[in-house]
Design goal:
heterotrimer, A mainly alpha (about 400), B mainly alpha (about 180), C mainly alpha (about 120), A: 12 helices, C: mainly alpha, 4 helices
Chain lengths: ~400, ~180, ~120
């Protein structure tokens, strides 16, 4: 029993029990410490994330970014946080105080609740729910509510209008998000997050599920309000949208929530499609799994920062058309294609047993699914090209007629 | 006897959420506050499903009810003009509705609850079944030819009909 | 029992996790200046006086988007158990799921053709 206390990270509850505490209370204390760690880690990480974003955006724009406060400007965000805390907090007249104050807290809580179900290593997970994936989707839909509350409680026409647009965008892009998440569930046969990561020890899901990975990534960009879908924080229109009347630390919480949400979305991408903690030696040394997860998340997160500094903003009607007329049909067809190909793979007999972590055993199945995905992409691109060609011909024909008219006048 | 363990405390909390939220919905003067109380009440309902070992239904409750229907209700409330400062909470037939409410409560207790739980609650300690069905069982039952595949397909027809009907009604003001 | 254990984590999380974002708010409430005057408290409308009440008659298009989202959300709820049990089922299950998805894709095509998905 003395060995139980060696690795405190793994065995906190038995460690406390051997120290003479009641097992129920020891369990409760370990839950409490786990909750504190999981809830604090994203909040502390946000400071690093904002610094990273400012540096990368600066470098893309050929300037230096923050470099005065602390080495490489690392403490810039601490200074900003202190500034926001000591700023005067102006609540507009006629605002609904309780909801006004509650909205930023609910936004942040809904994002940190996601972290409770994410597997950080083979043995560390906050709560390995049997329905972990659906729980994560459900919790992120609470964030939509906080936007509505913020917009309404501000007693401001523009905040209300801005929050309606934001809710319409968030709600629309949830459909391709969840449709894309059906594919890993199909391939794993379980919604638990640890099961999904364990099923990827043979082959990461990004290869057999390429189209769903792409749809998931794009929908995440839209759900978290990152470029090019950042109508949410379009500073040049509707002034700051639903954030207009927020000042001081409440505004700071909304900003922190945005960066946290973006990182969490990319964390989910690397858990579900890039294998999570699966990597060399991660089953022997659990903490290494956590390192792998963070490395993969940053590899996926940094392109989204570069995208933000590069691509122009999409208009709201273009955004909606893109979602309902392109992403949703493609996601639906993708689910059908993957389901069909899985049946074929099962019928042929190339389906590896669950729990098989051998890479080569998964290759035949992955090749068939990848071929199906590539065929789907080719079909979609062909349809887009044909419809684009038709549009261009339709535009060119009346112009040609005008030329004839001009010639005739001469 | 009532033992004070985690489940009892959780049940109490969820009961307070559901009933308190429902009370808030019908007594608040501000429609938006009513919608937010509804969300609290729905959370209580989701908690009950967790206690009943049906976590899938609990998450469905959060995802669909709170994430979609509550938002639609808030949208609809904001479409109407006077959403704040309602004058009267009760109209003049409150005594009739109180009688109907009490009668309904007695009817439900006698006709539905007592046959299942016994007259004094004597059968309430027995579990409903000895197996806990998982979500996978639900999935298999939904497409099993002998079980629920027909309601599964009819549900999709119902959803299609609902969407078509809603679009017809909502777009009526155009063309 | 382990099911309740995991949800106990979520329960404790919900009870406690809101304390951490509230801490900066509390510190801010303790340390910020309080110089309220009437002009600062006015609602913001590009620097001019507000015109009209704060309610706004918005387009019914927002409601239609929410409605279509609701129908598809319920469809996804039905599809998740199907996807969960998929690996243990035979080809008939694929056909059942296909029919389900087709009927709802039908509804999407109806909405598309009736211009219910246009932003205008």
């Amino acid at each position: 029993m003395q060995n139980a206390c060696v690795d405190v990270l793994e065995t906190l509850a038995p460690c406390l029990t051997t120290g003479g505490l009641d097992p129920g209370i020891a369990q409760f204390i370990s839950i409490l410490i786990g909750v504190a760690l999981v809830a604090l880690f994203p909040l502390v990480l946000v400071i690093l994330l904002i610094w990273l974003e400012r540096k990368i955006a600066a470098r893309v724009q050929d300037r230096l970014g923050p470099n005065r406060v602390g080495p490489f400007g690392l403490f810039q965000n601490l200074a900003d946080a202190v500034k926001l805390i000591i700023k005067e907090d102006i609540t507009p007249a006629g605002a609904d105080r309780l909801i006004f104050n509650l909205a930023p807290i609910i936004a942040v809580v809904s994002t940190t609740l996601i972290w409770a179900a994410i597997p950080f290593s083979p043995i560390h997970i906050g709560a390995d729910l049997g329905i972990g994936l659906l729980y994560i989707v459900g919790v992120s839909s609470i964030g939509t509510l906080s936007v509505m509350m913020a917009g309404w409680a501000s007693n401001n026409k523009y905040a209300l209008l801005g929050s309606f647009r934001v809710v319409a965008q968030l709600v629309s892009y949830e459909i391709p998000l969840v449709l894309a998440l059906l594919v890993p569930v199909l391939m794993t046969g379980s919604m638990g997050m640890q099961d999904i990561v364990r099923a990827q020890q043979g082959m990461w899901f990004i290869i057999p599920g390429l189209v769903s990975a792409v749809i998931f990534y794009i929908s995440n960009l839209a759900e978290t309000g990152r470029a090019p879908f950042d109508m949410i924080e379009a500073e040049s229109e509707l002034v700051a949208g639903y954030n207009i009347e927020y000042s001081g630390m409440k505004f700071g919480l909304f900003m922190a929530n945005e960066f946290m949400h973006a990182f969490t979305a990319n964390l989910l991408f690397s858990v579900i499609f890039l294998g999570g903690w699966a990597g060399p030696l991660s089953t022997q040394i659990p903490f290494l799994g956590f390192i792998w997860l963070m490395v993969k998340t940053f590899i996926v997160y940094i392109p989204s920062l570069i995208l933000r500094a590069t691509i122009p903003r999409v208009r709201i009607d273009q955004m909606m058309a893109f979602n309902w007329k392109f992403l949703v049909p493609v996601a639906i067809v993708n689910v059908i294609v993957v389901a069909f190909l899985l049946q074929i793979v099962k019928a042929i007999g190339w389906m590896p047993d669950p729990g098989n972590t051998d890479f080569l055993a998964h290759v035949p199945e992955a090749i068939i699914l990848l071929a199906g995905n590539v065929a789907l992409i080719a079909g979609v691109v062909t349809m887009l090209r044909n419809s684009g060609r038709r549009e261009r011909l339709a535009e060119a024909a009346p112009a040609a007629n005008d030329e004839h008219a001009i010639v005739a006048v001469h | 006897m009532l033992e004070l363990n985690v489940q009892t405390i959780a049940f109490l909390i969820f009961a307070i959420c559901s009933l308190g939220g429902a009370l808030g919905v019908v007594t608040s003067r501000n429609l938006i506050h009513g919608a937010l109380f509804l969300i609290v009440s729905l959370f209580g309902g989701a908690g009950f499903f967790v206690l009943l070992s049906a976590p899938f239904i609990a998450v469905v409750q959060v995802l669909v009810y709170i994430g979609a229907i509550a938002i639609l209700i808030i949208f609809a409330v904001m479409l109407t003009r006077s959403m704040t400062g309602m004058r009267e909470l009760f109209n003049r037939q409150w005594w009739l509705s109180a009688i109907v409410g009490v009668l309904l409560f007695l009817l439900l207790t006698i006709a539905v609850i007592m046959p299942v739980w016994g007259v004094n609650g004597s059968k309430s300690n027995q579990p409903v079944s000895d197996q806990v069905a998982t979500t996978q069982d639900l999935g298999m039952a939904l497409v099993d030819g002998n079980q629920y595949v027909l309601p599964f397909e009819v549900a999709s027809l119902l959803l299609t009909g609902a969407m078509i009907g809603a679009i017809v009604i909502a777009r009526d003001t155009e063309d | 029992m382990s099911v309740v254990n995991e949800w106990a984590f979520i329960g404790v999380f919900m009870a406690i996790a809101w304390i951490f974002p509230s801490l900066p708010l509390v510190i801010s409430w303790l340390t910020r200046p309080r110089k309220a005057n009437a002009i600062k408290m006015q609602t913001y409308e590009c620097g001019v006086e507000t015109v009209g009440d704060t309610w706004v008659q918005f387009k019914v298009q927002y409601y239609i988007y929410g409605l279509v989202f609701l129908v598809f959300d319920v469809e996804l709820i039905f599809l998740f158990p199907w996807a969960l049990a998929y690996n243990q089922l035979n080809f008939f299950a694929f056909g059942a799921g296909l029919l389900f998805i087709f009927l709802l894709a039908d509804a999407l095509i109806y909405a598309w053709k009736k211009n219910a998905l246009e932003w205008a």
